Amino acid sequence: MAYNYRWPLRQVETITSFYGDASPENIAKGYAANHIGIDIAADIGTAVYPCADGYIESYGNTTERGNYVNILLIDGNTMVIQHLLYPNLENTGLNVGSAVTSNDVIGYVGQSGANIDIPHLHFEIIKGSTLYRASEAGLPENPMKYLDLDKTLVTAYQADINDQNGSVTSQVVNQPFLIYKIGDNFLVIGNNQQKIFKKAGQNIWL
Fold first, then answer.
1. Residues with Cβ within 8 Å of residue 138, at least 6 apart in sequence
2. What is the DSSP string of 7-76?
3. For 121, left (φ over 0), alpha (ψ -120 to 50), or beta?
4. How far apart are the first and last CA of the chain?
5. Consecutive sets of 10 residues in the chain, 206 residues long: mean pLDDT of each?
């Protein structure tokens, strides 16, 4: 089945944590080590949109997740967004059961929840309704595979790489990589799960 989910923000800042990244904070607290979504840094108050049509399944607040909204999508999957500005659907005109499209504002980026150093949106895709999330394993999936982004599979790529000292070198990587174009930025994911986020102004060649 082909998915064509939209990016949940209308602009792209920086992906600060990828799906599957280990969280030292979570490990220290005994929580799951793997990150089950992606974190997208953005200014507080940035509007958030559904990635596809659906309806509001639930919303609320927890100490860990902060302010959150769950959207049951028309394909049966669920979009989960966390760390929102408001603890409810304030300034959206929506409520539980409201139908939404990918053009409706469903919340605003905030900094709510535990261990949130910078404002960002946590974005998950759950296969099936969140009502079953606690009783079934393996439901969270990588949102990147569902998003309708420009992407190209290449056997090698060359890019300007910034090292820890601020020096820039041109590096060629000879292995299969999937390159996503997100706005003016690039996300490079290799078959060894290496991830490089190239911001606008940094060169990349296919």
1. none
2. PSSSS--EEEE-TT-B-HHHHHHTS-SB--SEEEE--TT-EE--SSSEEEEEEEEETTTEEEEEEEETTS
3. beta
4. 28
5. 78 73 57 73 93 93 91 90 90 92 94 86 83 52 81 63 60 66 65 56 50
Q: Are 125 and 141 in contact (CB under 8 A)?
A: yes
Distance of CA 55 to the CA centre of its chain: 19
Compute the distance between CA of residue 91 and CA of residue 55 in angstroms, rounded to an integer: 17
Whole-angstrom distance, CA of residue 40 vs CA of residue 122: 7
* 3 state SS of 145: helix
- What tokens does 194 get? 């290496």
> What's the rounded Cα separation, in Å, for the pair 71 and 77?
9
Q: What is the DSSP letter of 189?
A: E
CA nearest neighbour of 128 among 118, 117, 140: 140
| Position 159, amino acid | A
pTM, whole model, 2 decimals? 0.74
Tokens describing residue 166: 């601020």
Dist CA 123 CA 106 (whole Å) = 13
**Structure-token pair, residue 104:** 């409706």
Q: What is the DSSP letter of 148?
A: -
Give the H or E element holding residue 29: helix 24-29
User: In 3D, which of 83, 37, 31 has the Cα closest to residue 60?
Assistant: 83
Rounded Cα–Cα distance for residues 94 and 59 (Å): 11
Amino acid type, 191? N
Selection from 137, 170, 145, 121 nearest residue 9 by Cα: 121
